Fold this sequence. Notes:
transmembrane helix; membrane; EamA domain-containing protein; mainly alpha; transmembrane
Amino acid sequence: MTSVRAVEQTRMGIAALLVSNIGWGVLPLYWHALSGMNAISVLAYRLIATLVVMIALLMAFRRYRAYHRAIAAL
């Protein structure tokens, strides 16, 4: 008899497998689209996009206070 936790872990594993395979499949299209841009533009875009996504996730999961405490402890 399988436990609920084992079933949940299997589902998460399958989801991770699908996301990673789709990501590897789409990655060449991403690199091709970036071929006309210079490195500084790509870096700036990635930094800004990461900041926006991180703030959105912190707000969505209501973890911004824990994040602030962790940064303040540095």
